Amino acid sequence: MVPPALNIVMLGPPGAGKGTQAERLAGQHKLPKISTGDILRHAVQTGTALGGAAKQAIDSGNLVSDDAVICIVRERLGCPDARRGFVLDGFPRTVVQATALDSLVAARGALVVLDIVVPEDVLVQRLASRRICSVCGGNATADTRRVCLKCGGSLVTRTDDGADIVRERLKVYQRQTRPLVEYYAPRSTFQSIDGDQVPDAVTAAIDTAIAAAVAAGGARQ
User: Fold this and answer.
1) CATH number at residue 100
2) What is the pTM of this model?
3) pLDDT: is 49 or 67 the higher one?
4) Mode of pairing for the β-strands spanning 155-156 and 6-11
5) Which pLDDT tens digit goes with each residue over 204-221?
C-alpha cells in the first residue's frame, strides 16, 4: 500500500521567511519546492504574455490573477517529481486559490498548512534589506557580499521591495491573503509558527509543527 504524500503549504506575509524555510523543508523531505514567485519572475524575464501581466502586477505591488496562478500550479503539480508531495511557497494567496488547491490534491493525502507569523515592523525592516541576484533571481540578505554565492551575479534590490511598494504589498496581504488563515485554521493540519526568531529556531518549530500535523491528519512524514 502506497502511503499518502506529504503536501505542505507555507503561509505568511512578504518577508516572513517562507522561501528559506520552504527550501529547507524540500531538502529535508526530498520534495520539490514549488514557488509561484520564481515561476512568474521567469515568465517576466522570458517575455511571455503571462510574464507581461505578471510584471505589471508585481511592479505595482498587486497580486497576479487567480486564474493565471491556478493554471501554473495545476501544471506543476502534475509533474512526476510532485507525486510524493510538495512544498508550496507563494500559493495559495487567496481563498479562491485555496479552494482550487483542495480540488487539485483531494486524492493525494492531507494538506499541511504552516502559517509563519512575524510582526509588521520586523517585516518592513527585513524587506528593506533583502537583495536578489540580477542573474539567477535567488534571494540574499544584505551584508558585506556584493555577489550571489550561487552564480556570482551582482546583488540588487528587488523592484517590489521599495518602501512604498512594501507598504502596498503588506496592505494587499492583509486584505486578500490573510483570510486564508481563517479558511485553514479549523483544520487539524493547520499550524501557526513564530517567525520572529533566527532561521534555525524557526526550522525547529516547523519540524515540531509538521510532526503534530502529520499525526493529526494522517499525512506521511
Assistant:
1) 3.40.50.300
2) 0.77
3) 67
4) unpaired
5) 999 999 999 888 865 544
Whether 100 is in a domain gets the answer yes
Query: Strand locations in the chain, DSSP E?
Result: 6-11, 33-35, 85-89, 111-117, 130-133, 139-141, 155-156, 190-194
Structural domains of the chain, count: 1
Examine residue 17 and state whether it is found in any structural domain, yes or no.
Answer: yes
151, part of any domain = no
The one catalytic residue in 24, 76, 108, 130 is 130
Q: Which domain holds residue 107?
A: 6-118+164-217
Mean pLDDT (the chain, rounded) = 83
Which of 158, 167, 187, 220 is catalytic? The answer is: 158
Please tell me the distance from the alpha carbon of residue 75 to that of residue 65, in angstroms, as a whole number.
Answer: 16
Give me the catalytic one of 18, 76, 126, 131: 18
Dihedral of the alpha carbons of 68, 162, 120, 92, in degrees to the nearest 10: 10
Greater model confidence, 188 or 163? 188
Whether residue 53 is contained in a domain is answered as yes
Whether 83 is catalytic is no
Determine which one of 24, 93, 108, 126 is catalytic. Answer: 93
